[in-house]
Amino acid sequence: MEFAWDFIVWCVICFSPILIRLLHRRKAGSYPPGPRGLPIVGNILDLAGAMPHRNIAKMKEKYGPVIGLKVGAVRTVAISSAKAAAVLFKNNDADFVDRAVLDCMKCHDLHKTLLGLAPYGTFWRVLKRIYTVDMMVVKRLNETVPVRRRCVDQMLAWIDEEALNPHPIEVGRFLYSTLFNIIASLVFSRDLLDPNSKEGTEFFEMVSQMMECAAKPNMSDAFPWLSRLDLQGVRRRMNHAAGEALRIASSYVKERMEEMSKEGVHNRPKDFLDVLIEFEGDGKDDLTKLSEHEIDILVLDAQFSYYS
After folding, report:
1. Element spanning 14, H or E
2. Fold of 109-307
3. Which residues cross the membrane (predicted)?
4. Sequence ranges of the domains in the chain
5. For residue range 248-264, what is the model confidence (pLDDT) as tens digits?
6. Are the beta carbons of 242 and 107 closer than 8 angstroms?
């Protein structure tokens, strides 16, 4: 008698949803309560709409402040109260210290070096110390007042010039450009969005493309097994934009290294790029020096973070 393969196939098709639901129930006890998702897509439809955060806020009334969700194949938890967030980030910070990494952020090993994504460990602690001690301190911020004032004056001059044309002024575009120039001045001690700087304009465009890729919903993040296919082309676009931005950043870093190798170079205030190049470990950490590639990414990170 021939084996009834078609019968087995139809049985698998019919009973798979039941088996998936049973397995889901068995595992549900280890996750916070939340809306029951559909097979494969999970709770994606529950979050559909222009404001998914409002959908999550409504779930709080039924499931409480800690809500378990399944976005595609990825389980996640939504925290919707200050008290629950304090318990999570204050009392259990070591357990939840690592960040979820978007598929596109794995290009050029960005996720290993960016402060917001790097895994918790020696390297991350060194980065945090560099930012908090050498960058985000009151003394250093006070020293940047003239830089910020100059960039704002430049923005007002751009707006005055634009006002001579008979069309509406896009104030947002000028604000973004000014913020970009302020960060660039703090990092490189130069204006990148100078009309005569072709590389600066290209750098701005590449960083903007990187932000668009990072903000774009990507099927590879909800279904990790699809990452190799890159169905939406997000990783491909990020790989190109990040590669070009790193190329330009690397040219600035090399130029500064050559400048610092000469005598009499410290006739200007020290900027963030100087701090990164001159960094040396104190012997307590395994990290003694930052590699040139790591410096390139950290320089890019400073510009990348100005949007947030």
Report:
1. helix 5-28
2. Cytochrome p450 (1.10.630)
3. 6-23
4. 29-91, 109-307
5. 999 989 988 888 877 65
6. yes
Per-residue 3-state assignment (H helix, E strand, C coil) for 233-270: CHHHHHHHHHHHHHHHHHHHHHHHHHHHCCCCCCCCCC
- Token digits of residue 184: 């660039």
What is the rounded CA–CA span in Å between residue 78 and residue 47? 12
Cβ neighbors of 217 (< 8 A, separation 6 or more) are none
**Residue 10 CA to chain centroid, in angstroms?**
45
Taking CB atoms within 8 Å and a gap of at least 24, the contacts of 190-196 are 191/151, 191/154
- Does pTM surpass 0.90? no
* More confident call, 290 vs 176: 290
Instruction: Return the bridge partners of 71, or none.
Output: 42, 74
Kindly report the number of other CB atoms within 10 A of residue 282's CB atom.
9
Closest-CA residue to 78 (of 94, 91, 60, 93): 60
Q: Which helix (H) or strand (E) holds 120?
A: none
Reading the block at residue 164, the tokens are 């001579």
Q: Is the pLDDT of residue 180 over 50?
A: yes
